[in-house]
Fold:
Amino acid sequence: MRQVSVFGSTGSIGQNTIDLILRGDEGEYGVEVLTGGRNIDLLARQALAVGAKLAVTAYDDCLAGLRDALAGSGTKVAAGQGAIADAADRPVDWMMSAIVGAAGLVPGLRALRHGSTLALANKESLVTAGPLLMGEAARHEATVLPVDSEHSAVFQALVGEDMDAVERVIITASGGAFRDWPMEKLAGATLEQASSHPNWAMGQRITIDSASMFNKALELIETKEYFGFRPDQIEVLVHPESLIHALVGFVDGALMAHVGPPDMRHAIGYALHWPERRRLGVERLDLARIGALHFSAPDDARYPALRLARQVMATGGLSGAAFNAAKDAALDGFIDGRLGFLEMAEVVETVLDRFGSDSSLGNAEVNLDNVVQTDHLARRRADEAIRQKRQA
Ligand code: NAD
Ligand code: MG
Structure:
């Protein structure tokens, strides 16, 4: 029996992961840990469905509810960030890291220490602490498998290939909710408009990040950190149909494209069954019916997030931690109405400039203390920048 844990099981990636686990053969999986946030009802239902040994909520005030919901079930309960980190110490064969944001970093690091295979949906841990995470994996001979669709696509296109023969990597972007909007309308984009994606059903934060291309910005950095490509080898291509997820270009001019429906169960299933391929109940594409695929170069004026990501990749070190935290704080600002849609990138740029003028983010060691400190400082600076905008 394979022992597995799902961190962030109540989210969009987490629910799809549970769905795949439940479709496994009788006795195929033993579920050690599930973690969630405030959706106690769902967390408890999942724990009962898979027979989890432990269910953890991130919030202390949700513990009593979780305990009631799971009374008599045999599933133990716990609450708080510390309990989530401790739960990652329970050895498993496979762990899904699907908490959203920087909170996903510590559980992933702890799981790698006992050699678990880490299925990594939480791109923020590679953006904030790529060298630390990949270094920890190497030290403990643990495997990290990408779950982000573009990175799973690159990973699959590289199977059996010589890394030295790779010339470039192209990750695609749908263009998000506003790809057809005129620039002058973007400033007035509302939360509701930014929260619906044309092709993918995902959590709210990543959906808004897709509209602003901050998601693709994170993914550029994720590509560099995970595969170790040079920044100038990594390209973004706008592809509105979201059917080609990534392409790998080789020295002989060949491009290997990964094509599939926009359904995260594919990338999750690939990581769950790797190195095998198993039958998955995702849509089969009828290319003759689809007829045409479209591509265009991203417009830098429209998507400043991509330019900022290039700056972060060039700087390296702790700049990813600053970038991710500033983006997160700006996103909070947009969600609660303190910032306009286009102002998110302005705030992130202000924060990066601040760091650029008074510290050497690029040369600092990427250890957990430094990452956490940089994260906190960047959030404070972003909040300051937001306040200044509102006062101006
Ligand atoms: P989501 O918002 O739907 O779910 C997030 C999960 O994390 C929930 O279980 C929530 O309870 C938990 N969580 C939130 N904040 C937490 C905190 N501070 N501490 C502990 N747990 C917390 O998010 P999602 O869309 O499933 O995305 C999860 C991760 O996967 C993100 O890093 C995202 O970028 C990445 N990802 C998602 C998709 C997608 O299709 N949804 C695709 C690629 C990558
Ligand atoms: Mg992606």
Remarks:
- DSSP finds 17 helices and eleven strands in the chain.
- The CA atoms of residues 53 and 165 lie 45 Å apart.
- Residues 316-391 form a domain with the Rna Polymerase Sigma Factor; Chain: A fold (CATH 1.10.1740.10).
- The chain has a mean pLDDT of 96.
